[in-house]
Every structure is written in C-alpha cells, then in structure tokens.
Amino acid sequence: MTRAVLCFGDSNTYGSIPGVAGGRYDWETRWPGVLARELGDGWRVVEEGLPGRTTVFDDPLAPYRRGADYLPPCLDSHTPLDAVVIFLGTNDLKTRLSAGPADIAGGLGVLAQTALAVTPRVLLLSLPRLGAELSGEFAGANEKAGALPRCIAEVAAAVGAGFLDLSTLVTYSAIDGFHLDPDGHAAIGDAVAQHLLDVF
Fold first, then answer.
1. Closest CA to 178 of 142, 125, 124
2. What integer pLDDT is reported at residue 136 of this predicted model?
3. d(Cα 92, Cα 55) in Å, to the nearest integer?
4. pLDDT at residue 59 greater than cutoff 90
5. What is the pLDDT of residues 95-143, one digit of tens each?
6. Rounded to an integer, what distance in angstroms lies between the CA atom of residue 170 and that of residue 156?
7. Which of 45, 76, 195 has its CA nearest to residue 126?
8. Cis? peptide before 80, omega within 30° of 0
9. Residue 17 DSSP one-character state
10. CA 80, CA 118: separation in Å to the nearest integer?
11. How many domains does the chain have?
12. Residue 85's pLDDT band (cuts 50, 70, 90)
C-alpha cells in the first residue's frame, strides 16, 4: 500500500533560494524532496508550494494567494491522502496584513479543519526562527513570530492536528531572513519524516 502526503505551503515549500529572484532549489534539496527520500518506498509526496501564499488573508500586493481558497480544490485533486502537512504563516507576518499571532494561528486552524474533513492526519508546522536581515515589509515580525509556536500548538490541539515547532530546529537564512537554505530544508524534511513514520 502506498501512502500519500500533501505538503501545502508558500515559497519555502516551493524552494525559493534566499536572495535570488526567481531562483528555486532542485527537488532533492527542497524539504518535500528530502521528505520523500527519508520516507522511502511506499510513500508519495505531493508538493504544493506557492510563493506569497498566506493562510486566510488577502494580500493587496500579491493577489490569488489565499491558502483558504486553494486548499479545497487542491485536496480534491490529490485525494485520497493519508496526511497533510501545512507550512504557512511567514507571509502572514507582513506588516500590511496587520495579523497578530492569534490571527495567524487561527488561519492555520481553518486550513487544518478543511484538510481534516478529507484526511485523517494533519500536521501544522510552526515557523523557523526569522533571520536578522528583514526588509521593511516584515517590520515587527520577530515579536509576532516569537508568540506563534504557543498559539499554533493551542490551535492544533483544539482541532485535532499534530504540531511540530520548527523554531527549535531551524533558522531562516541570514541572507534575507525569511527563506530556507539547504540545511534548513534538510532539517525540516528529516523532522517531518520522523513525525510521519512515528504516527503511521
């Protein structure tokens, strides 16, 4: 029997290279690719990463990026799924969206409930630690990000999803402060694989 897991995220699931406009890591480097390698035969990993994607918020400067809009048809197109991993929230930290930690966690909860309607297991990932060099659009993000693990853990428990705190494992690249380097991708792929192998 082959199990299927959907990785639903933003540019860090897509594999954007820090500081390189339009750059994308290859499949073997991106964390869903690492996950596929670590899970091994018997698993199918579906990668759904879109740069700029938010949880439930409309970004006036990046339209058509609301995860809440795309997740339902995405689930339908890839069903049946044994698990869904949701790695979002970085774009929600942008100053122009005015979303606090509880709002961002609540958005993840909405997505988790949507996924749990069609799959038995959902894993919410809290964000890696933000890097030191952040642009103006992320002003104040470090303070909000610091409160996210607790908020997301509470939401995950409330809706019946799993939770993995990436802030204890990974820091975003110092090049731009909000994208993963290869070591970060490797650490996330390994950690998610271990979680899935533990629960299945």
1. 142
2. 84
3. 7
4. yes
5. 999 999 999 999 999 999 999 999 999 999 999 999 876 768 998 899 8
6. 20
7. 195
8. yes
9. P
10. 8
11. 1
12. very high
| pTM for the full predicted model | 0.97
- Residue from 34, 140, 42, 38 nearest 92 by CA: 140
Identify the domain containing residue 54 by its residue range.
3-199
The 10s digit of each residue's pLDDT in 20-58 is: 999 999 999 999 999 999 999 999 999 999 999 999 999
DSSP 109-165: HHHHHHHHTT-S-EEEEEPPBPPS---GGGTTHHHHHHHHHHHHHHHHHHHT-EEEE
CA distance 26 to 24: 6
The CATH number of the domain holding residue 153 is: 3.40.50.1110
| Tokens of residue 183, six digits | 């070591």
- How far apart, in whole angstroms, are the C-alpha atoms of residue 113 and residue 15? 26
Helix, strand and coil percent figures for the chain, each rounded to 5: 45, 15, 40
